[in-house]
Amino acid sequence: MGLFACNACRYFFEADALPDTCPNCHLDSVLGSTDSGRRVSFPAVRAATEAEVKAYEEVGKAAQEERDFLEWLDSLSSYDLSNDEYHVALMLLHSFRTTPDLYTKHFTNDLLPAKKGGIEGWNAQAMARILYIDVKKSFTSKINQERQNAGTNDIVKVAAQTPPDSAANVLRRFRQNEITKIFRDPQNLGDIRRVDLEKVVLEPSDGYLRFLTEWYNSMA
Ligand SMILES: [Zn+2]
Asked: Has the ipTM of the complex gone over 0.95?
């Protein structure tokens, strides 16, 4: 399997061997000029350069990461989570969405013994506290950055202007209480501020620990 490029339409595609024509524009040759200005015809399709292969793989990897991340966000509804746990899970997933699995595993592994007693459990709580505070802080600054770039504080508008994996689109998933729902205020920084991290650190529910474990196990 190799990566090929079309000089006529700039299409990139994977194939077992170099084809005669481009699968996108169906041209077999393009016209160009030599250094001396002579018009010549050369094959439209060529093997991609090393730099092009690298760029192609980067784009594919980013797209896959975004798909995985959005799937995890959707799957949170299948766990029995308190509002605080749900919001911490959203921010955790967002914070680690582009982090290599190896590092994410290292962090989540430290959180897992949270239900066990003794030194191990105490350690897990200390690690969770540090991580959650950090994740909440960086999520808040990401929201501020996206609002600044979008030129508006309205989370609905920011979410519409940013990709599906943006912090604003994650904040749009925050649960709201009955009163804010009635007045239809969109989510804001107050919803992040109100997340009770300490409760998730000290009393993680079975549903939350199941989420952490399954997330951990999903990593390569
Ligand atoms: Zn083409």
From this structure: yes
Distance from chain centroid for Cα 89: 13
Please tell me the distance between residue 44's alpha carbon and the centre of ligand 1 in angstroms.
7
Flag whether pLDDT at 193 surpasses 70: yes
Q: What is the pLDDT of residue 114?
A: 60
- Domain range summary for the chain, segments of one domain joined by +: 2-48, 81-218
Tell me the CA–centroid distance for residue 177 and ligand 1, in Å.
Answer: 53
For 32, list phi and psi in degrees, rounded to 5: -145, 180
CA of 117 to the centre of ligand 1 (A): 63
CB atoms within 10 A of CB 209: 17
Specify the residue for token string 């680690």. Answer: 96
Q: Is it the case that residue 156 has pLDDT exceeding 90? A: yes
Ligand 1 centroid to 61 CA: how many Å?
24
Q: Which pair of tokens denotes residue 215?
A: 């997330």
Q: What's the 73 CA to ligand 1 centre distance in angstroms?
A: 37
